[in-house]
Amino acid sequence: MAKRALLVGCNYPKTQFRLYGCINDVSEMQKLLLNRFHFDENDVKVLTDELGTPPEKLPTHVNIMAALRKMVDEAKAGDVLFFHFSGHGTTISSVEPGQPFREDEAIVPCDLNLITDMDLRHLIQKLDENVSFTILSDSCYSGGLIDKNKEQIGPTRVKSIPPPPPELHFKARGIPIGSISHCLLSVTSSTTPIEHGTEATPKFWGAIIGTVAGLVGNILPLVFKKDVSISFLPHNEQRALLSSKRSLSEDEGILLSASQANETSADLKGGPLTGGKAHGAFTYAVLQGLDQKRGQEPLTNQRLVKEARKFLQDLGFEQHPCLYCSDGNADAPFLAHRPGPEHTCFLLQNEQRALLSSKRSLSEDERILLNACQTNETSTDLKERPFTGGKAHWAFTYAVLQGFYQHSGHGPLTNK
């Protein structure tokens, strides 16, 4: 089983969209994966927009999607994949003639070339069904970033939450889609041809800024050519891409979102609460929840999101982290692979009964188990010692082997 991760932090330095805690989020998450969850350093890719970062390591749309595709393409049954995004989010409401109303949730790379829920759905469709893929998105409007997932912890209305204390400084992690369109227009020429020789006059730009459909159909493809989200491709190309993959079930993909689809999430500036470092409120809550349970039974995805919700509510934040996944994945430990159907103890009770009732009943004569310890005990892994000939062994296995050696030539040993 391999564990692979992509960690993305966008602070958007020297822009009007500047955040402060996203790179710190990624740095702390990387330490957690390596030290707590035993990811290999070579299997954890980090993309941040820290000043001086070379272009190939910046969290642009192209670099993020290339890293995600590589992770997905290399995945095999039983692997655990993790994508952590810390940065701005946005929503896109599309109303086009002859097309149904659609609202896409999106994350905002450092080049503002959006990645939408449709792109993530396409990636998950490529995966083997027995691969675990967890997304933790610390961005505004992030509820619903994985399409067709069951809502385990969803929208909530909490009344009379006291506001955050005045010493807790923060800003929202969200960019209105109109601000993105204006920013993108600033990097294009006012006379750039659009289609069939049409000139991009101020009147033309004013018309398309006023509609999201204009943004989807003109601005992003104009700036980024073919390197745009599936959401911004012509409808026939969208259908061809998505219909060529298998359909998704609710069991595929795990989303831990910083907020509901209609909420902003907080970017905390450095202060006493965070040890002087800036952080995303949700990422910080997740890190605190995992740290407080260190050495205890692993937190399930559901328990972790509930702990994060309570942490943020106690601080006075009106953002509600959500969890979208199957029932089985809700109760699975965070970043742990949920075994496939052959592992009966991880199935739902009705699935267990269906499987076991179809087989003949067992008698007490049909199994022999020699176990290393009682059910309430741990077993021992011996390091290299003189009495083991300088080799490491499990204590019980070494004892069994010694028993065979000492009785060699004296007839077979019974199991007892």
UniProtKB/TrEMBL annotation:
Residue ranges of every copy of the Peptidase C14 caspase domain listed in the record: 3-326
Source organism, top-level taxon: Eukaryota
A Pfam short name: Peptidase_C14
Positions of transmembrane segments: none
Database matches in Gene3D superfamilies: 3.40.50.12660
Family matches, as PANTHER family: METACASPASE-4, METACASPASE-9
Family according to the record: Belongs to the peptidase C14B family.
Protein name as it appears in the record: Peptidase C14 caspase domain-containing protein
Species this chain originates from: Hibiscus sabdariffa (roselle)
